[in-house]
Amino acid sequence: MAQRTPRRPLIGVTAGTSRMMTGAWAGHDAVVITEHYVRAVRAAGARAVVIAPQEEWTDEEVAELDAIVLSGGTDLDPALLGEAPRDTDMAAQPERDAFEMALYRAARRTGVPVLGICRGLQIAVVAEGGSLHRHLPEDLPQHPATGERPTRVTARIDADSDLALALGSSAEVTAYHHQGARDVHGDLRVVARHASGLPLAVEASGGSPVIAVQWHPELDPSQGVVFDALVAAVRQQAAATVEAVPATRDAGLPWGRIHRPGPSEEA
Questions:
Q1: Which residues are catalytic, by number?
Q2: pLDDT in tens, 142-158
Q3: Considering the entire predicted model, what is its pTM?
Q4: What phi, psi does 136 have (nearest 5°)?
Q5: What residues contact 127, with CB distance under 8 A and at least 6 apart?
Q6: Which one-letter DSSP state was computed for residue 60?
Q7: Contact (CB, 8 A) for 198 and 144
Q8: 173 beta partners
Q9: Long-range contact list for 143-146, CB < 8 A, 24+ apart?
């Protein structure tokens, strides 16, 4: 009888919606996410499960996933911040905001690791009670204009962080945003900044693993180690469960560094 190999981790990747403009389905809403996310998850040795905005998932349903990627996208609804709209805001998607906020909080309750990317960092920050800069560089003049096109910037990374295990103390990253974290609260701490002072990455200081970055690692093959680290956290938790060691899913296991599996190693 052939030995059964463990399945690849299942990683939920959130998506947005957009109105189709041409073709037979013009005028209908479509679930939208760039293929870069799926490709990056696959390269890290996992399976991507694309999740569209919908009714809130139960904790039990969220726990069926091995990890979650909160993807980039449009601005958060300013109502979440208790602020008025600005002319510089992108069109809000309240349904997506509500769904992803609930998904993040459920992941924190159930111990499912989370990787937040760009908007995903902002979801985590606001869910934990933090606030945002609404338009850069207007709100932070020292920050470069990164909202017009993907722009290379330098992230200065705290040596005492899980992110530093993967990227070192400094990394050139691809940013594409006009909003960003202002105040970070709750169980999150800032672990990387731009020279302007803008937080470029946060991690959970306790509880289940969370890393969120204000850049787009899915666009840059050299940043694939960020997705590797997510899969490493999943595999460490699985190993801890199998070996019945004291660690649990919410023990805050470090993300750490892993190599990309070769064809013979893929689960």
A1: 118, 216, 218
A2: 999 999 999 999 999 99
A3: 0.88
A4: -110, 145
A5: 101, 104, 105, 186
A6: H
A7: no
A8: 153
A9: 143/180, 143/194, 143/196, 143/198, 144/196, 145/178, 146/175, 146/176, 146/177, 146/178
